[in-house]
Batch of 3 targets.
Target 1
Amino acid sequence: MADPVDSPVDARSIARRLRVAPGELPLALAALHAALPVGATWSASLTGRPPASLAEVVEGGGFSVLEATTTGRTRARVVARRDHTLPDFVAPGLRLLVVGCNPSLRSADAGVGFARPGNRFWPAALEAGVVSADRDPWGAVRTDRVGMTDLVKRATNDAAAVRPAEYRRGLARVERLVAWLAPGAVCVLGLEGWRTAADPRARPGVQPGELGGRPVYLMPNPSGRNAHATVASLAAHLRAARALADDVASARPGDAPGDRVRPGRDRGARGPG
């Protein structure tokens, strides 16, 4: 569930909501997204711009950037419109970043990813112990240190409506997000989206390359339309992704990072066993 709205959403309250440290900006944008109706336009001056592209961070928050003007090295003015999509639920210090293909219209309405009836993500994540509360992205990011984003922000009724170019552009955005926030590992849900964006021959499991300097785990889509995926099998994949993140956390400082993911060349290597 989204954070409660504690004040009217006017120009002054928006400026106050976004007056945060750069690493806190994505969650501040997520809270603003929950407080505004679809199509609402806002503007604000931001300070302490994040290392990632400011426009991409705002877009990741579920907004279309209408104007972004830089004033000096650490100030910018942004005009944006609230889209019918999901915001990123991300922050520094994540144990695991979960990356879906794109939000469904049902999820965009609910403000929670994987909200369609029959989607197995939340039951599997609970069974795996990756999250501690059902359908609570705020609790996931703040308590469990599990963040959520999507390769493509545009919400559709069916992932088949997403164009290949959208997946490729989205992968570039997620790569820059990962390089900025440095989660322990990245867990991509949905073979088709990853194969389209990164490697047409990829298999479920740990991918040989990295994304934004972090290891990648690829697993099947938890959608109810994927008849081959069960709660138990998806939970096993999520446990393996969590173990990958924990391996990174326990690695010795100074270990050399692996190669970056190279579209079309790397293959999946290791899954739950």
Note: Residues 179 and 212 are 4 Å apart (CA to CA).
Target 2
Amino acid sequence: MAELPPASPPQRQRQRRTARPMQVQLVPVKVDDITAPFYVRYDEFGAGTWADAHSHRLGHLNYTPHGTISMETADERFVSPPQYGIWIPPGVEHSCYLQHAAVYRAFYLQPELCAALPQRSCLLKISPIVKSVLADFNQRGVEIPSTPQDLRMAQVLLDQMCGSEVQGSYLPDGQTEALQEVLDALKQEPGHRLSVAEWAERVHLTERTLARHCQNELGMSLGEWRQRLRYLRAVDSLEHGQSVQSIALDLGFSTPSAFIAMFQREAGVSPDQFRKEFLVSTE
């Protein structure tokens, strides 16, 4: 990831990427000269923060206990809610973008420590232990673990990452123009209530063909993709103190209880519990 400085507007890395507010560009943080086994970084970024493609000699886990983060490599685009982190192996070029303000954590490892970790960029499930150790390091201002106790804690982080559940992109892009047109429309207005058949008609496909594109390109149905999108938007809205009722209305749910049920399926906790667990205890 990167550190703050003045800069010029970003270049569009993908033709289909939606327009984004141009506020602050990040310049790659200088970690390549670090010789310690581990390095921990903390920061807070405002909405619209972005960084162009860059790479680090060290591998690193990117985690936002508050808000969501998007990162792109040459092959994939990742959007990560608070219960996941984005793993970037050593030397992999990546860019990042934060649509909303977010608290940021990064855990860097020397290349020789990354052998047991995925060799491709991916999402890693953030366990309560990982969350707690990073929060403890942050509270004590530990950037380079050096005491025997802190080195053991850093090793625990590595062990947890090696055993973590691996997932591809949480909210993948489509590969065909018709499907991406549908996804872009949903990103602009997650509250759309059109059926798959109605979306198919809009992009001049049959319902069956659109459904097949979703399974082949996204690995899930359009309904599941939309649910993930609405969940990510809900996470950011909860972070900004919006009420459950107003979030449900904005995201097109018929009742707050329907929104709560969706959120609980996705996060494993209710919106109120999520506020307490992710948006309070991680400070």
Note: Confidence is low (pLDDT under 50) at residues 2-21.
Target 3
Amino acid sequence: MSMFVKICGTTNESDALFAVAMGVDAIGFVFAPSPRQVAPTIVRDINRRLPAEVMTVGVFRDEASQRVVEITNTCGLSAVQLHGHEAPAEVRWIRERVGFVIKAFSVGDYGLEKIPEYDAADAVLIDSAQPGSGQAFDWALLEGLSTALGKRLILAGGLTADNVGAAIERVNPWGVDVVSGVETSPGHKDARRLYRFVEAAKSFEGPEFEGDEYLMPFEYEYVDTLEELVDERLPGGRIDLGLDGDVGIHAVESAEQ
């Protein structure tokens, strides 16, 4: 199965729809304090426009467990990403109420040694020491981790269309997560960078786990034009691509969640 691709730090409908049209498997929305932070009411409205098959992820950091579940359900999201110092018991409690949980760690964090304790998490994400900074790290630090974990590993931190292939070859992750590598500015995606990133990442296959066919329902195929991708993923949709990389995607009607 092709590499799982998550685009995070999404703040508006056009970027979300364009990412879906490009073939991504998951769209991330940041609720934690960040230049990319977005209000739950906005995310709820965006999510209503997305195909139900695409994973939508709420990103939280040291938020109260009850609040995480409340926001996730209010927005109609299908997954959460916990990017703080949440204890294994908190992750387990949230997982009992949310369909998919990603537990994030920063490379070099002492918490990496405790990953096996987070057995309730469906996936583990490893980010750079400064998440969202666009800084890559030495991928050699994660060699062999994918096999040792025995669960889904998502690689993040400074990934771009130019280096994601080398990162995948070194780490052998189940998926990749990108933010700044496909942006023009924090919270605003660059259409061409995003297109190139998805194309590069999807040319690789990752380890397979039970249930992956439900997490990645769309079979990615390279096409010659962006218009073909939009027509494939958002039938009847329209694309407006600006010279500066800004994109406008218009769906015909709302997708029921």
Note: The chain has a mean pLDDT of 85.
